[in-house]
Specification:
about 290 residues; alpha/beta; Rossmann fold; 6-phosphogluconate dehydrogenase C-terminal fold; about 55% helix; globular; binds NADP nicotinamide-adenine-dinucleotide phosphate
Length: about 290
């Protein structure tokens, strides 16, 4: 696959990594970046991630063949509004947002039908707790999954082009309905982030916090790494996927109450049952 002009709106960890790998694999002609901070965009040019930049999304998408939106979820509606009258007729539009119903709703509200049909909602299941273009690296998507959530409006050719782009980036592409994506990701990604932020916040507000963090070892680091993720990005994700996150959080609260009761009652059998089941599940998943 070859993209003559690729436009990345939001040249951070995800957008920058995608630009880097497509450049490395000679899959693009020109790569244009777009963002608000000139400093980040200048760094992106210096690092060779993009060729040039615009701070105005409407100007950035001129003559684009493929536009990838890689900004926090709360920014999507304004980006769709800013570019819809300025993209070329045959452009393909896609995104990398971590929740999909909100993005598809914004697209339906803001894009004209012809452009909506060439919008392919997507989500790479890859990332780190770092953000900005300096955190980007071309191997990020290697052997990772990318979920596409085409809708009844989505054009098959556009979908195939977006799939080819991600396969060129080293990813395995799967498709699923929007609602299923949001339920699955609420459980596997959004809930763990909520728990990590909440745990670290609780510990940070304990009176003996200096001692708490002084004696924190590998387990604490492993469990809480994702609490270093970009707060605004995760604020947007949790609110965008609020219903699914609340539903899985409720289930988690019930299970935690069962464990707390077992501890209170010194119920070794129950505690060991839960711990053994969790260890077996994780060992088999991490294989
Ligand atoms: P990031 O490193 O913070 O990058 C986001 C970029 O968007 C920044 O460079 C920011 O630059 C730019 N931006 C923000 N608002 C903008 C606006 N209104 N117009 C133009 N540019 C704007 O974040 P990221 O981790 O790459 O996340 C980007 C998207 O990927 C999010 O939708 C997130 O849900 C999704 N995602 C993230 C991960 C992950 O693990 N991080 C994984 C999968 C998907 P300026 O501030 O200079 O504008």
């Amino acid at each position: 696959m070859f993209i003559q002009r690729l436009v990345i709106i939001g040249v951070g960890l995800i957008g920058g990594s995608l630009a880097s790998v497509l450049r490395q694999r000679a899959a693009c002609g020109e790569i244009v970046g777009c963002g608000r901070s000139v400093e980040n965009l200048q760094t992106a040019v210096q690092l060779g991630v993009i060729d040039r930049y615009e701070t105005n999304p409407a100007a950035a998408v001129a003559d684009a063949d493929m536009v990838v939106i890689s900004v926090p979820l709360g920014e999507f509606a304004s980006i769709f509004r800013a570019i819809r009258d300025h993209v070329p007729e045959n452009v393909i539009l896609t995104d990398v947002g971590s929740a999909k119903a909100c993005v598809v709703n914004d697209a339906r509200a803001e894009l004209p039908p012809a452009l909506l049909s060439r919008f392919v909602a997507g989500h790479p299941i890859a990332g780190t707790e770092k953000s900005g273009v300096t955190a980007a690296f071309p191997e990020l998507f290697e052997n990772r999954k990318v979920i596409l959530t085409p809708t009844e409006e989505t054009d098959e050719h556009a979908c195939a082009q977006v799939q080819a782009m991600w396969e060129t980036a080293g990813a395995e592409v799967v498709s699923m309905p929007v609602e299923h994506h949001d339920e699955v990701l609420a459980a596997t990604s959004h809930l763990p982030h909520v728990l990590a932020y909440s745990l670290v916040d609780t510990l940070a507000r304990m009176d003996e916090r200096v001692e708490v963090f002084q004696f924190a070892a590998g387990g604490f680091r492993d469990f809480t790494r994702i609490a270093s993720s970009h707060p605004k990005m995760w604020h947007d994700i949790c609110l965008a996927n609020r219903d699914a996150v609340l539903s899985v959080l409720e289930q988690f609260n019930q299970d935690l109450a069962v464990l707390a009761k077992a501890l209170e009652q010194g119920d070794s059998e129950q505690i060991l049952t839960i711990f053994n089941r969790a260890k077996a599940a994780r060992d088999s998943f991490c294989g």
